[in-house]
Structures are given as structure tokens and as C-alpha cells.
Design brief:
Blueprint (H helix, E strand, L loop, with lengths): L2 E3 L2 H12 L20 H5 L10 H6 L4 H4 L3 E3 L10 E4 L2 H11 L9 E9 L3 E10 L2 H16 L3 E6 L2 E9 L8 E11 L2 E12 L2 E7 L1 H16 L3
Antiparallel strand pairs: 1-3, 2-4, 3-6, 4-5, 5-10, 6-7, 7-8, 8-9, 9-10
């Protein structure tokens, strides 16, 4: 069954992949980060916000060019939501589309986002999303989306008239915060492939998602969590 929906949450997690498709290039994935031996709760004790944060407070906790280092340029904000998206071949995501369109999943009202281009040996991108809600809602919404995406190793997303082959692989997330999720998404269209890594960390009432080139995600995820929990 083909189901047409806005799939807000799915697009939130695959936005960077779909946006960069026209000029994407094939790259090799980084190995999954090694899980640290420290207990997650102990690692996050100093960074747990005790209340739900407003969008203004979240924006203050986003990474900036100074945090990332030389070679990073912030991209203008753009709306990644689209109405002409169809998920094919993944019942879990097709079913989830109705919840997303109704405002569930990652459609939390308190959010902030920043995206950056890195001009190193090759142009790469990394983005950060911050959400704040009760720990229970963040946990349920994030887990539902990640579980649905990795439940289908291969499926298709049609954006407008463009078919995109999607492949997802569950990865070991770094032992940070209270809960962690990580996955590798390979999108292919027109014979070209793009690889995006996404790592999500929940600590208390704060959810941090870092997406982009695998190496950049590994480099900056802990820094993103640190600033989000204790803004300078």
C-alpha cells in the first residue's frame, strides 16, 4: 500500500539527506563510535535541564561557527517540510505518517536548528536540532521514529516526482545522556548516493540530534550535547 503524507518526523530526520540530493556525492561511512564504559546517567548529571526550555532558550544553546572551529559557515534557515512526499515499502513508516501529520513524533513545539557547511578536503554538512519537552514525550517520540526507520533496511521515498532509494542501518550510539539513538542513512537517486549519519541524545527534558557527514557527526556530537546542557 502506498500512502501519501507530510511525514513531518521522517523528514525531520532525513532533511539533510534529501536537501543535498541534487549535488550529492558518494562517501564512505565512518565506523560506529565505541560505547564508553561510563554509566549514561553519570555522564549527563551536569547537563540535564530541569525544566522544559523555550525555543528562545534552545537557540542560545545551538552550536555556532566559533564552537565548531575554522572552515565552518552557517547556512540560512530553510523549511524542510513538504507536502508531496510518499513513503513506499516500509509499513512502519507509512503507518507513522498519520501520527506525524497530526503533530506527534518529533513535531515538538519547542525546537531550534542550525546547519553548517564545512569546507575541508571536500564540502560537507552538519546540522544540529534541539528539542525540549518532558522526558517521557521525548523518549517515546524519538524512539518511535528511529525504530520505524531502522525496521526497514531498504525502502523508497518519492519527493515530488523524484524516487529516492533509502537504506538505513542501526549504529551503536555513544554512551551519553539518558538515552541514545544512532543510524546511518544512504539515499540514492539518479545513480548518485549520499550518506548521512544521525545521532540523537536525550538528557532530561532536552533532545540533541546531530546529522550530517559521518565524521563530522562523530566529531561534534559530544560538544553539541555539552553546550546544549550548559550554554556559555
Amino acid at each position: 500500500m502506498h500512502r501519501r503524507s507530510t511525514t513531518t518526523a521522517v523528514l525531520a530526520l532525513t532533511a539533510l539527506t534529501l536537501i543535498t540530493l541534487p549535488g550529492c556525492s558518494t562517501s564512505a561511512p565512518s565506523p560506529a563510535p565505541t560505547t564508553r564504559t561510563a554509566e549514561p546517567e553519570a555522564a549527563a548529571d551536569n547537563s540535564k535541564p530541569g525544566k522544559v526550555l523555550t525555543p528562545e532558550q534552545l537557540r542560545e544553546r545551538l552550536l555556532n561557527e566559533a564552537d565548531l572551529g575554522q572552515g565552518y559557515t552557517r547556512k540560512p534557515e530553510r523549511n524542510s517540510g513538504r507536502d508531496d512526499v510518499t513513503v513506499i515499502g516500509c509499513p512502519a513508516l507509512e503507518k507513522l505518517g498519520g501520527d506525524a501529520a497530526a503533530g506527534g513524533s518529533l513535531d515538538f513545539p519547542n525546537r531550534a536548528k542550525a546547519a553548517f557547511t564545512y569546507t575541508g578536503s571536500a564540502d560537507s554538512e552538519v546540522s544540529q536540532e534541539l528539542y525540549s519537552d518532558t522526558g517521557t514525550r521525548l523518549s517515546a517520540g524519538t524512539g518511535r521514529i528511529f525504530d520505524a526507520m531502522v525496521s526497514c533496511p531498504v525502502y523508497q521515498v518519492v519527493v515530488g516526482n523524484t524516487p529516492v532509494k533509502m537504506q538505513t542501518q542501526k549504529l551503536t550510539a555513544p554512551a551519553l545522556g539518558d538515552e541514545q539513538w544512532s543510524q546511518l542513512i544512504t539515499s540514492t537517486t539518479g545513480g548518485r548516493s549520499s550518506i548521512v549519519k544521525q545521532t540523537a541524545i536525550r538528557t532530561g527534558t532536552l533532545l540533541v540530534i546531530v546529522s550530517g557527514s559521518p565524521g563530522l557527526v562523530d566529531t561534534h556530537v559530544e560538544k553539541a550535547l555539552g553546550k546544549a546542557g550548559s550554554p556559555s
